[in-house]
Amino acid sequence: MPLPNPVILVPGITATDLRDLYEFPPQLIWSLTRNEYNRAGLHPQDRRYEGELPAQVRPDQVFDIAYKEMVLDLRHDLTEHADQPVPVYIFGYDWRQPLATSQVQLRAFIEEVVNKTALTRHYFADGYTPQSKVNLVGHSMGGLVIAGYLASTGRQSGVERVATIATPFKGSFQAVEKIVKGTMNRREREASRLTPALYHLLPSFTRGVTIDAALPQTDMFDERLWQASVVDTIGEALRLRGSGAPADAAEILRDMLAQAKAHRASVDGLNLANCGLTTDDWLCIIGIGAKTQVAMDIKLDKGAPRFVLDAPGMIDKKPTRGWRTGDGTVPYEGALPNFLQEADTVILSNKDFGPLELKDKLLDAVAALHGILPNMNKLQSMLVQHLR
Q1: CA–CA separation, 286 vs 330, rounded Å?
Q2: Helix H or strand E encompassing 250
Q3: CB 274 within 8 A of CB 195
């Protein structure tokens, strides 16, 4: 029996540490316990770089609380013989950047993993070559990176099987909340408004979204539907940090929205057959039964749009009620990809934790199911079965 392909995990947004290499010694500015929003924010005129310069921020290790257990279990369970390990790599990336940028980096990482695996003694003996393939596992936004990568590379992707966990293929209201309100403080909100990747997570489904009749009946990627405060924040960032040729705050917002809309169109248009894949090659796991934002209104208030995210009924506390459910971050509507039928997906809830998963049940009680799903034993068993 041939050895399983090497596996690459692509984590979700914010789940990779960021470290400033400009400092001596290099300083961690973003991690599970360290959130320096002001230093993680990007420059309004060129969002490839940091807002507070000089700096050289690079991705570091991923959050072990979310992925360590899954990665170690895959390394142990995918192999039939201890002396023939199946490599499971982690693709840590700069989750602030547009997903097209991360996809280019993923392509180079896949090539590196394939070449390394072809040099490994037991894989070389098994016939693995630099033309062989990998399997990909994506959690949350990591699944969008994978889907966009496949849509852009087709049969040249070098991918044989895919598994996605709690991926917002059609977006999440939490991205809107993060951009508009922040979830912890003003510094986070201001950095979020200049984080291109967050706009890639905007909801593109229509059920649950009500737009005032006096406003354009389009979607969240239309800048005309956005609150003026977002443009004002970008304008203030330009005032504080701008240099060189003048830049327009509204144009910066339009650019981030346009990039996000183009990426969503590529994911929506993904054709598995064009990538040499079938529905059996894609394990799509969706979480439900957690308290989730499932609706929002865009109202006309004093001549300008205003987002309403806290009206009664917009946050559903019931475990399973048709489409009004989710994993605490991604509503069910946002988790359904165009390239699969609902029957081709796997549904999991907190009821699927085993009786001995006490730590994960405790984490689920204080955090959203969305972030804890990769730790679920049942899910990990599904991954092993799918990736072998």
Answers
A1: 9
A2: helix 249-268
A3: no
